[in-house]
Amino acid sequence: MPNPFSKGGALYKPPSGAGWGGEAKGAGTPFNAEHQPPAEAKKAGWEARAAMRARMEEKRLAMAEKLIALAETAESETVQLQAVNAFFDRLDGKPVQAVSGPDGEALPAAIAVRFVQPE
User: In 10 A of CB 67, how many CB atoms?
Assistant: First the structure.
């Protein structure tokens, strides 16, 4: 059965204008421009995020000091090992894990879509 969207099919529409969607719209007009916040709100948001990052940096250093103290002074070796692991996970990041299919093969990189015309 021929594909109705392919050239010569019943639903085929030849391309028109520039690009797939017809004539190109005005360049430089941002998508959804009427829903964007004003510039003052964006600047306030940037400043608030910068302040939050500074506070988080202070807390990160304090947490690192607590983990080091716990690793050195905890009575249980299990707690010491967990503190060391937590410290290095935050210092270097957790190791990368491979992503693969059930038998070790690569995951599919594409999805196939098939249109079926009802009978």
Answer: 20
